[in-house]
């Protein structure tokens, strides 16, 4: 089945719900059995993991199962589990796989709360956490130890957009008996197929493109056959579950994922190409640009790009950065991404990185290019860059003893 068709059909069973197109929002804690025999049968079906089987709202309802079934199919994994946030999905998957005495390798460019979870929480339980350079430095093979249980990858990396060689990392990890856990939020289940590239567990912050409208928090973990029992057990042991309204929003977002992403990709690349030509820009970190160091790997392994990338500005001034951001009208200043709207957020390059050197000089922002007309976004950025230049030259004049320093 073509993927666009799959997106429309995935996880939908109208015949079970009186013909209603969308799986209804099931609000449930207690699920009644009609008799003792039926209760025994419900418990048996849940233990046997039969489709639709549940005994309690925490273990999922038809609403939960619709999203799990859809995402597992799209990612190309065995089964999925839904979580109340992307970070809950990450932390539960890692908790399921790691025990005291184990060693975990985490990419330096991982989403920083993921690293914080490993370093602040799992380290307290005796897990040894080591960061590695996502793109170069010591080959992963040389870092793998007898007790390395997980290699955590995120490609492209948060903020830096480094592309990792996932098949090579997975081959090395598997030679040493380690699992590969991937944050696949940027690639989405459409543009990167984790299991076809050797990944054992894939995490989606569904909050981003799957929900797609900045109105719900949700995460999904997708497992292969081997990791499924471990992750499912820990998820249930930890009481992880998500609310039906948020799951419904994710299912609704999923139906338009392909068309939205197509536009995010086109507009994002158009904006990135324009930015690359501007004198105020030091670098644009977008894997689909031929200038990106990871471009060849991106072309080999990905089938598209989303609307998220970073821009390094040719200024070291915080005031000029503020002049740029405060001039923007279509880019909201805030975290997260994947909604229909454009966003900008400043970040401190390489902050928290321990092994990967950041090669750029200037102030940096991450942009999310939304579904607005890209020409309007470019006009907005043009005004922002002019404000940045004006602020930079005012500061120059001030240094030379004339004019006022800009306050922005
Ligand atoms: C946002 C994000 C997460 C966490 O998702 P939440 O739903 O906000 O908890 C994880 N990984 C990446 C790459 C993200 O951007």
Automatic annotation (TrEMBL):
Cofactor annotation: pyridoxal 5'-phosphate
Keyword Ubl conjugation: no
GO molecular function: cysteine-S-conjugate beta-lyase activity
Record-annotated membrane-spanning stretches: none
Entries under Pfam families matching the protein: Cys_Met_Meta_PP
Record CDD domains: CGS_like
Reactions listed under catalytic activity: an S-substituted L-cysteine + H2O = a thiol + pyruvate + NH4(+); L,L-cystathionine + H2O = L-homocysteine + pyruvate + NH4(+)
UniProt KW keywords: Lyase, Pyridoxal phosphate
EC number: 4.4.1.13
Protein's UniProt keywords contain Lyase: yes
Pathway: Amino-acid biosynthesis; L-methionine biosynthesis via de novo pathway; L-homocysteine from L-cystathionine: step 1/1
Family membership noted in the UniProt record: Belongs to the trans-sulfuration enzymes family.
PANTHER family reported for this sequence: CYSTATHIONINE BETA-LYASE-RELATED
Protein name according to UniProt: Cystathionine beta-lyase MetC
Species per Swiss-Prot/TrEMBL record: Cupriavidus pinatubonensis
């Amino acid at each position: 089945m073509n993927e666009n068709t799959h997106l429309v059909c995935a996880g939908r069973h109208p015949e079970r719900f009186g013909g209603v197109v969308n799986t209804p929002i099931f609000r449930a804690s207690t699920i009644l059995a009609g008799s003792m025999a039926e209760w025994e049968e419900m418990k048996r079906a849940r233990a046997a993991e039969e489709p639709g089987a549940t005994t309690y709202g925490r273990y999922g309802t038809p609403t939960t199962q619709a999203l799990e079934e859809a995402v597992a199919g799209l990612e190309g994994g065995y089964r999925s589990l839904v979580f109340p946030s992307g970070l809950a999905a990450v932390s539960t998957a890692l908790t399921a796989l790691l025990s005291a005495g184990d060693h975990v390798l985490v990419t330096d460019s991982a989403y920083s709360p993921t690293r914080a979870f490993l370093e602040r929480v799992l380290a307290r339980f005796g897990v040894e956490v080591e960061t590695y350079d996502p793109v170069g430095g010591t080959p992963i093979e040389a870092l793998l130890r007898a007790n390395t249980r997980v290699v955590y990858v995120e490609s492209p990396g948060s903020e830096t957009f480094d592309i990792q060689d996932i098949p090579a990392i997975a081959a090395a990890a598997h030679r040493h008996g380690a699992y590969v856990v991937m944050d696949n939020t940027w690639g989405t289940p459409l543009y990167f197929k984790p299991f076809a590239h050797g990944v054992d567990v894939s995490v989606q912050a569904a909050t981003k493109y799957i929900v797609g409208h900045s109105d719900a928090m949700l995460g999904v973990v997708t497992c292969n056959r081997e990791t499924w029992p471990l992750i499912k057990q820990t998820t249930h042991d930890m009481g992880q579950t998500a609310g039906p309204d948020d799951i419904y929003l994710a299912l609704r977002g999923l139906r338009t994922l392909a068309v939205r992403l197509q536009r995010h990709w086109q507009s994002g690349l158009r904006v990135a190409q324009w930015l690359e030509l501007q004198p105020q820009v030091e670098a644009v970190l977008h894997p689909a640009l031929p200038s990106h160091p990871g471009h060849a790997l991106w072309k080999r392994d990905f089938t598209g790009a989303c609307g998220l990338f970073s821009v390094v500005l040719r200024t070291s001034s915080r005031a000029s950065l503020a002049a740029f951001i405060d001039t923007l009208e279509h880019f909201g200043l805030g975290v997260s991404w994947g909604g229909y709207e454009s966003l900008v957020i400043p970040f401190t390059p390489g902050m928290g990185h321990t092994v990967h050197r950041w090669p750029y000089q200037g102030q940096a922002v991450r942009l999310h290019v939304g579904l607005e007309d890209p020409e309007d976004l470019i006009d907005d950025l043009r005004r922002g860059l002019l404000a940045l230049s004006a602020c930079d030259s005012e500061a120059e004049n001030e240094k030379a003893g004339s004019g006022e320093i800009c306050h922005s």
